[in-house]
Design a protein that fits this description.
CATH architecture of the largest domain: Roll
CATH topology of the largest domain: Ubiquitin-like (UB roll)
Largest sheet: 5 strands, mixed
Number of strands: 5
Distance between the termini: 63 Å
Number of domains: 2
Strand content: 5-15%
Radius of gyration: 20 Å
CATH class of the largest domain: Alpha Beta
CATH superfamily of the largest domain: Beta-grasp domain
Number of helices: 8
Bound molecules: FE2/S2 (inorganic) cluster
Strand order of the largest sheet: 2-1-5-3-4
Structural class: alpha+beta
Shape: elongated
C-alpha cells in the first residue's frame, strides 16, 4: 500500500493508493473538494486549476505523487474566517461568473497572479483588458445553451446594436477584444488617476498610436468598433 501525504488548504491529508491518480480526481472523489472542476481533462481549459506551492497548475494532468509533501490550495481555501477572498468578491460585484463552471479555475489563476504581483502595473491592466496573449480558439464553441443569449442580452449596446458582451465563439470568445468589465462597479470604483490613465491608453492603442506588437491581435476593424462602442456606451470614459 502506498500513502501520499500533502497539505490541502492548510490541512495535512493522507491518500492511500492514489499516487498514480490525477490530483483532480483525488481532490474531488477522495477529499470531497468539488469546487475544482473537470473540463477538458487535457490541461487545456483551466477549469481544474489549483495552486501548488503558490503556482497555478492544471490538476487534471498532475499526478498525485508529484505533489507529495506540497501545499495545495483549491477554491475552497480562498475564504478566510468567513470572508471571501477579495477576488471572489470582485467576481460577484462584477457579475463575472458567466456560467460558473470554470469560475474556480479563473479565480485560482487570478490569485496566483496577484500573489506573485500584488500591485499590477497600470500597463498590466491595459494589456489584460485588451486581451493581450489571448489564446485563439482552435475549434468553434458549439452548443445551444441559452447562456450565450442571456449573457449577450446584458449589453449595453451602441447605436449600431453592438456590445462588448457580444460573443464570437469561432476565433475567440468575445467578439470585441476589450473587457466588458469597463462597465463594472469595480472599474468605476478605481482611483480617478488610474481610470484616466486607462482611458488615455485605451484610446491611444485603439486609435493606432504606438506600435507595440503586443496589440497586433487588434485588427483595424476591432479598434474602430471598440472605439465606437465606447463612445456610445461610456461617453465620459
Ligand atoms: S480539465 Fe481542462 S485543463 Fe484540466
Amino acid at each position: 500500500m502506498s500513502t501520499t501525504q500533502l497539505q490541502v488548504n492548510g490541512v495535512a491529508r493522507r491518500v492511500e493508493n492514489g499516487s498514480a491518480r490525477s490530483l483532480l480526481s483525488v481532490l474531488r472523489d477522495d477529499l470531497d473538494l468539488t469546487g475544482t472542476k473537470y473540463g477538458c481533462g487535457e490541461g487545456r481549459c483551466g477549469a481544474c486549476t489549483v495552486l501548488i506551492d503558490g503556482k497555478a497548475v492544471r490538476s487534471c494532468i498532475t499526478v498525485l505523487e508529484d505533489v507529495a509533501g506540497k501545499e495545495v490550495r483549491t477554491v475552497e481555501g480562498l475564504e478566510h474566517e468567513g470572508r471571501l477572498h477579495a477576488l471572489q468578491q470582485a467576481f460577484i460585484d462584477a457579475g463575472a461568473m458567466q456560467c460558473g463552471y470554470c469560475t474556480s479555475g479563473m479565480l485560482m489563476s487570478g490569485v496566483a497572479i496577484l500573489e506573485k504581483e500584488p500591485s499590477p502595473s497600470r500597463e498590466n491592466i491595459v494589456r489584460a483588458m485588451l486581451f493581450v496573449g489571448e489564446t485563439p480558439l482552435t475549434d468553434p464553441v458549439a452548443g445551444t445553451s441559452a447562456f450565450a443569449a442571456e449573457f449577450m442580452k446584458q449589453g449595453p449596446r451602441d447605436k449600431q446594436g453592438r456590445s462588448l458582451r457580444d460573443l464570437d465563439l469561432k476565433r475567440r470568445l468575445l467578439r470585441y477584444p476589450l473587457s466588458y468589465l469597463v462597465y463594472s462597479k469595480s472599474f468605476d470604483g478605481m482611483p480617478d488617476s488610474l481610470k484616466s490613465y486607462l482611458s488615455r491608453r485605451f484610446h491611444e492603442v485603439l486609435s493606432g498610436q504606438g506600435t507595440s506588437p503586443d496589440f497586433a491581435h487588434l485588427s483595424e476593424a476591432d479598434r474602430k468598433a471598440i472605439l465606437e462602442i465606447l463612445k456610445d456606451t461610456k461617453p465620459d470614459f
